[in-house]
Amino acid sequence: MKLIRVNPDKIEIPELRVTARFTEEVWEQFKSSMKEVGQVAPIICCWVDNRLILVDGLHRLIEARQNGATKVDVACFEGTEVDVLTRNLFLDHTRGKTPVSEMILVIKALWKDFNLDSEQIAAKTGMTRDYVEKLQKLSALTPMALASLDQERIGVGHAHALTRIKDPITQETVLHQQELYRWSIKELEEYIDGVLAIQQKREATPRSEVPTEPYKFRCAFCGGMFEAPEVANPTTCRGCSGMMFAAIATAKAEAKAVADVKDKGTPAS
Questions:
Q1: pTM score > 0.85 for this model?
Q2: Contact residues for 125 (Cβ-Cβ < 8 A; gap 6+)
Q3: For residues 111 and 100, what is the distance between their CA atoms, to the nearest angstrom?
Q4: For the segment 68-87, what is each residue's pLDDT rounded down to a tens digit?
């Protein structure tokens, strides 16, 4: 690595990265320290095709820019986009609190976009191969499940169990039940076994060939029940719809009055 001083505005911040999270109290202490003492540790960057790309030190870089610093200390090395992602993942993951969803996105990019297998990713990031493969599987989770994982309402083991459910609606339904009942990983696995067994049974059961009665619709005006070919439903505004209801109600009342008169044998006036 080479130590240089550069304008902080020259450092490019990649969209895809892992960033450690601070509590509000620690963040305020960090900002106060940056103002009073200045930069203590260098920001780590990578030279990629004449671009200086941030690897580690986003909070230091942000505060330096906000404090109007014209130069910052940077420890830089030459490499590739893969090096940017893997070094970033290694440094922030080993330091502590990082959103699992961000780790999953970085792993997914290394796997899908740069064709690294789990063993290569593990070697470059310091993670175990088993953990990397779990994160690869977690990329199949719905956004709601990933948010639950980030907010620590479920753990990686529970999230890994949920990846067995491919249907997103069913996955999120089981997620809500897990958040409610707080099952152990073993209990969740057993519950998912039951859910998948029911799904398989339902898919294997042939549909009934018994003819069913045609579905009928109730007329909003006369209240009668009619099959679909007998139903007309032109689009109407609220005003026209109200006038139609009133007109039909009046016509029905007049028809009833005429029928009542006939039943009594008296000519209608």
A1: no
A2: 86, 89, 90, 93, 132
A3: 16
A4: 989 999 999 999 999 999 99
